[in-house]
Amino acid sequence: MILATTATVAALCSNCGEMEFQALSLFAFSRLGHESFKCHCRTPLLKVSSHNRRVFSLYYQCAYCGETHYLRLNRRAIWGKKALPLICPEFSAIVGFIGPKQKVVQACQEQEKSMGELAEELGYVEEFENPEAMLRLLDHLHSLAEEDKLGCGCGNHQLAFELLPDRIELYCDLCEALGIIYADSMDKIWPVVSMGALYLEENNTWFINRACERQLAMINKEE
Ligand SMILES: [Zn+2]
Ligand SMILES: [Zn+2]
Ligand SMILES: [Zn+2]
Q1: How far is the CA of 158 from the centre of ligand 3 (A)?
Q2: Nearest CA to 138 among 88, 64, 60, 202?
Q3: Cβ atoms of residues 132 and 186 within 8 Å
Q4: How far is the CA of 204 from the centre of ligand 3 (A)?
Q5: CA 38, CA 58: separation in Å to the nearest integer?
Q6: pLDDT score recorded for residue 119
Q7: pTM summary value
Q8: How far is 129 from 98, CA to CA, in rounded Å?
Q9: Cβ distance 152 to 177 under 8 Å?
């Protein structure tokens, strides 16, 4: 039987938005009974404490909602065989993982698609008027970008995003195109996330919510 004594912690930093990896040794608890982790940007990420090295209390700073979440785990859950996700109960989002290094790295790579994009912007989450609508919209734009279905009529596929509390603005750097998507309610983003592609109008300002609503209404009429 192999007894694992080193686990890996991966946690998304609420300040810089990067996923930070650190090693957690079981022996760290023999002296002080607790271990704290900070991001390389010095933001506190996670604290683990235990008095008996059997039951561990885990406190992690949540990059999604800004609160500190708490988990009570036994030794085998941390120094075991699986990567355990650290969850934000409010957003049902994964903030990190703890477990064997290989499994943690693998789990993070699988997560990266949806989180990577958001991570950069996470510092804003609390400032969004409607985080649920904004994150849903971001997810959609991200998958459109991945499928190469997001761009500008001028041929540019690399749009710049600006996140504001109630909306996202998409810019084309090659022409003057600007697209504005309001995301302060689920009702407003719904027509937008129903679209399978989004292209800005060359040199024009485009209010995307309304345009998508019209497009959807037309599609419904035809059917
Ligand atoms: Zn950081
Ligand atoms: Zn949270
Ligand atoms: Zn353009």
Answers
A1: 9
A2: 64
A3: yes
A4: 9
A5: 14
A6: 46
A7: 0.52
A8: 32
A9: yes
Cα(25) to centroid(ligand 2), Å: 25
* Token pair in block for residue 180: 């504005």
Instruction: Give residues whose Cβ lies within 5 Å of ion ligand 2.
Output: 62, 64-65, 88, 90
Low-confidence ranges of the chain (pLDDT < 50): 1, 115-116, 119, 121
* b/e sequence 118-157, b meaning 16+ C-beta within 10 Å: bbebbbebeebebbebbbbbbebbbebbeeeebbbeeebe
Cα 75 to averaged position of ligand 1 atoms, centre (Å): 27
N- to C-terminal Cα distance for the chain?
A: 64
- Per-domain residue ranges of the chain: 6-114, 128-222
Render pLDDT for 56-80 as a digit per residue (tens, 0 to 9). 999 999 998 999 999 999 988 898 8
